[in-house]
Structure formats: structure tokens, C-alpha cells
Design brief:
Blueprint: E1 7-8, H1 10-15, E2 29-30, H2 32-44, E3 47-48, H3 49-60, H4 68-80, E4 84-90, E5 96-102, H5 104-138, H6 142-166, E6 174-175, E7 182-183
Length: about 200
Amino acid sequence: MWLGKFLDLEKDMEKIIKKELFRDIKKKKLTPLEFTIIESIYQANAISGYDLIQKLDNHFAGTWKATSGTVYPILSKLKYNRFLKIREVKSPIGPLKKVYSLTEAGEEILKLKVNQNFSKQVDFIENFLTELASIYIQSFDSKFKDEQTKKVLDKLKTMFDRVLKNVPTGRALNKCPNCGTEIDNVEAVFCAICGAQLRADDSGE
């Protein structure tokens, strides 16, 4: 979840050289949830509303439940305000489905805002994790504290190992030849967005 109340975009738009890029942007502030949705769409490159809801549920890890009644109205507003665009693609099972991706202006705003706030966001997360772990350990009786401390340290180490593993290293990801979606699963046979075949099926059939 992006931290803060509202993310003011107006001054940022004035700083970017490509000012004409933002002529159609109608909204000058984004809520933290709107910005988180923009981040999630950027990470997926293109994503259906249903898959976005699943992705948000995973992102919030049970602390907040994404619902269609909340997410779809936000997607409509972000499209109306020119942060998103929609196209219809054929799904692997046949029927067309709508997928959302960022406009060029939406992507520029996202990158600028993250670039400006990255260090502060990381510092906040560090402070939050330290306080959370300390209170959690202190909530146990003294005879269990050593055991719980070890569990907390192991969990944090596992988490940071996953973060380091999942952060992009600059290597180019494979792209779907049909829709251009970046594919980070090297074993994928079909594109999750348009259903196009990515490589030969190893089954021999």
C-alpha cells in the first residue's frame, strides 16, 4: 500500500519536459489505493480486472480485501482521467476480455513519483517492521521470547531474501510476440493475457 494521504501530481507534471503528454490528464491528485492500483498494473504490463483483484488481495496479504465493487469504479475513474487505457484481447479459453494498461502519461507519473519517494518509503517500511517485530516479541511471556525472536528473525530473513530475488536486475524479460506483455515465467507455454503460444508444448502432442 502506498503511504500518505494524497499524491499531488500537478507540480510533478510541470517539471516533466513532455508537458503535452499530460494535456488530457484531468485529475491532479491520486489516493494511495489509486496509486497502488497503478503500480500493480504497471508491474503486470497489462491485466484484466479479475486478475488485478487477485493481485491486490495478494499485495495486501489479508489486511484488506479487494472487491469488484471497489476496484472497477476506480479503474473507470483512472481510465476517464487518462491514466489507463483498455483493450479487448482473446483469453486462453476463448471469449474476449478487457485488459488494462497504463497510458504513457500514467507511466511517466508513476516513475517520477516512485523515484522521488523511494528512499522515504523504504525507511518507513524499515521503521514499521522494527516496531512491529519488537511489539510482537514483547507480547509473549519471557520464557517464550527467545523462541519467538528466532522465528521473527528467520521470517524477516526469508522475506528479504525473496525481495532481493524478485527485484529486477535489469535483464530483459521475454515478451509475448502477439500482445507485447512481459513474461516473467520462463516455463509459460501460453500468454496469460492474450493466450498466444509462447513456445512449443513439451508434451510432444
